[in-house]
Write a structure and sequence with these properties.
The complex is a heterodimer of chains A (168) and B (434).
Chain A lengths: L4 H19 L3 H6 L1 E12 L11 E10 L1 H11 L12 E13 L5 E12 L7 E14 L2 E11 L14
Chain B lengths: L6 H9 L2 E3 L6 H11 L5 E5 L8 E7 L2 E7 L5 E5 L14 E3 L2 E3 L6 E3 L4 E3 L3 H5 L16 E5 L2 E5 L7 H5 L2 H9 L6 E12 L3 H10 L4 H4 L1 H5 L15 E4 L3 E7 L2 H5 L4 H10 L2 H7 L3 E9 L3 E8 L8 E13 L2 E11 L4 H14 L5 H14 L11 E3 L18 E3 L6 H14 L3
Antiparallel strand pairs in B: 1-19, 2-11, 3-4, 3-6, 4-5, 7-8, 8-9, 10-11, 12-18, 13-14, 13-20, 14-15, 15-16, 16-17, 17-18
Helix pairs in contact in B: 1-14, 6-14
The chains are: A alpha+beta (168), B alpha+beta (434).
């Protein structure tokens, strides 16, 4: 079910705001955008033949498979002074595009976005580029938008980055 | 042939408990490692549980060589080079699947699950009747292969000793990882794969005997509560064991580490399965083993992890291969292993504990790889490559324990470097062709 133009703009602004928090390393504020029942997943992708393509994404095995509590532990770690993988912090830019919105029951909205994540570290002139499609479910709690679910479908089977000390 | 002056000074340094930093980013050494080390070692490829059914296969690597590990209709596992005998094209270009046979997309040569050549299109017109000897044109089997406890290994050296002989005394210790239950292990999911700008030897060196780094490298994970240790130096008063080709570390004193958080029924099952000497360790305040490395690049880790306040910490186990891609560049393969006959809730908990601790997003793994890349990059430097690293920890300080029931030399601290020194001795003697 499609949404009105003004609602589309509102949800788009929410998604851009979320990306901005990540790029600004405002991890606690980012965590607050998540519903208590959050599910944040990145299924591992395995290269299969076209015939067996339905097995490509591991539904039960991920790079991430997080509850809100797990996200909170990761954020807590990032807030210490000894999270070496992010000391100094990665410079990231989340380019979020191709927003598609589908209204479903219970005031929930299914979003699809394309993500191009630029990541640069230290004094290295190079960068990692991670591309993915994200499937989100959002809803409102007390008049505020909250992320309920995110599934990140990476465009890589072998990840080309040192680690996932960042969020997508 | 390589520079004859390359190896002797490194060997001399290793004999003195030193190591030149340059070994972690040397194209010359990398070429030697491929030829003399990886082509002559027992390389872990896959676990049998990854290919449970007839026709199942995975594509795996030994350095640059690609292999198909498959299960045929008679339930036999095969390891064959993934290269068509006609023009060398990969006949399998995916990571995993199920097939009746492998067909080369270039000219259509077809191979059976065991590698046997079964069809050549236009054979009679192009080659003549019965001119091609199919028996000699199958996919090349790995010169040697072996399976131990479901772990599939291959060796590119036809003259290599058997896998069983190679594992030797390491089996006494690998038992702790692989023999906890009647049904043995299975891979939970699939291996995670990612590429890091770090040398494979740094990872092996860390897993074989670096009990020392945890209190500083992993301080944030302990502080945030995912690693449920009483303090970051939980391996300090543990035990480190050095074999020629294997090193392993145990924790001590920390109550949680004694069982690694395995629930009582699983601990009881282990006591039934382990031999009396192995059980005696568990009765003497030594933990189940945590970190280990089998030369060259197969590492193990078994530890507790906390992923929720709603349940106790769960044990997780990972096998990993540090696949060398180039000097200073490694592809990490990380498997999450669980006991096949454990309850589903246990497997789920173990998976979550693994995820927050190790693998691509694991917080312990993140900080480890950061260290290794921050060693690898500077190791190229003209001055830095000659830097002599200190590998003397515990030398002259500790004597092997005389009451240790297992093979090899055991030392009453895991903040020591006996297993690392053994790794480097094995590494250099392998490159010397010994």
């Amino acid at each position: 079910m499609s949404v009105t133009d003004s609602l589309f703009r509102e949800i788009e602004a929410f998604i851009y705001h979320e990306a901005e928090l990540l790029d600004n390393h405002q991890h606690n504020e980012w965590l607050d955008l998540w519903d208590e029942q959050a599910s944040y997943r990145m299924p591992v992708r395995v290269t299969h033949t076209k015939r067996q393509k339905d097995q490509e994404f591991q539904e039960k095995f991920g790079h991430f498979d997080e509850t809100k509590e797990m996200l909170g532990m990761r954020v807590k770690r990032l807030c210490t002074s000894t999270a070496w993988a992010e000391e100094p912090q990665s410079r990231t830019r989340h380019f979020v595009s191709n927003l598609r919105i589908n209204a479903v029951d219970n005031g929930q909205y299914e979003l699809k976005t394309n993500l191009m994540l630029y990541r640069n570290r230290l004094d290295d002139a190079g960068h990692d580029l991670l591309s993915a499609e994200r499937h989100d479910v959002i809803h409102q709690v007390g008049g505020e938008w909250r992320l309920l679910k995110r599934t990140i479908y990476m465009d890589q089977a072998t990840l080309g980055t040192l680690n996932l000390s960042i969020f997508l | 042939m390589s520079n004859p002056n390359l190896i002797p000074p490194i060997a001399e340094a290793i004999n003195k408990g030193q190591l030149p930093l340059g070994v972690f980013n040397s194209p010359e050494l990398f070429e030697l490692e491929k030829e003399l080390l990886f082509a002559k070692s027992w390389n872990f490829l896959a676990h049998e549980s990854e290919i449970p059914n007839a026709g199942d296969y995975v594509q795996r690597y030994i350095a640059d060589d690609s292999f198909i590990v498959s299960r045929d209709k008679e339930n036999t596992v095969h390891v064959v080079l993934n290269a068509c005998r006609h023009r060398g094209r990969k006949v399998c270009s995916v990571e995993k699947g199920n097939a009746r046979n492998f067909s080369c997309p270039y000219h259509g040569w077809v191979y059976d699950l065991d590698g046997k050549l079964i069809d050549v299109p236009y054979e009679e017109e192009g080659y003549g009747k019965n001119a091609l000897n199919h028996d000699e044109l199958g996919l090349m089997p790995a010169p040697k292969m072996g399976i131990w406890r479901g772990m599939i290994f291959a060796n590119l050296d036809a003259n290599a000793e058997s896998l069983d002989d190679y594992l030797g005394d390491a089996k006494w210790y690998m038992d702790f990882y692989t023999n906890k239950s009647e049904a043995g292990l299975e891979v939970y999911g699939v291996p995670q794969r990612w590429v890091v700008d770090a040398d494979w030897k740094l990872a092996a060196d860390n897993f074989v005997g670096d009990g020392y780094h945890t209190f500083i490298t992993h301080a944030s994970t302990i502080q945030a509560g995912m690693l449920p240790a009483q303090s970051g130096d939980f391996l300090l008063d543990g035990v480190q064991v050095a074999l020629e080709h294997f090193g392993i570390g145990f924790a001590r004193q920390d109550p949680l580490f004694n069982s690694l958080a395995y629930p009582p029924p699983m601990m009881a099952a282990m006591r039934q399965r382990f031999n009396p000497e192995q059980v005696s360790l568990m009765d003497n305040g030594v933990s189940l083993p945590t970190h280990a490395n089998l030369f060259p690049n197969l590492s193990f880790l078994n530890a507790p992890g906390t992923y929720t306040s709603m349940a106790p910490p769960a044990p997780y186990m990972t096998f990993r291969i540090w696949r060398p891609l180039a000097a200073g560049k490694t592809e990490i393969w990380s498997w999450c292993m669980v006991e096949k006959d454990a309850p589903e809730e246990f497997k789920q908990a173990s998976y979550k504990a693994y995820l927050i601790s190790f693998g691509t997003s694991g917080t312990l793994e993140q900080d480890d790889a950061e260290n290794w890349s921050q060693i690898t990059l500077p190791a190229k430097g003209t001055m830095a490559s000659k830097l002599s690293l200190n590998y003397s920890m515990g030398d002259g300080l500790l004597e092997p324990m005389d009451d240790w029931p297992g093979p090899g030399n055991a030392y009453p601290l895991d903040f020591t470097e006996f297993a690392q020194r053994a790794f480097w001795k094995k590494w250099i003697s392998t490159l010397e062709g010994k």
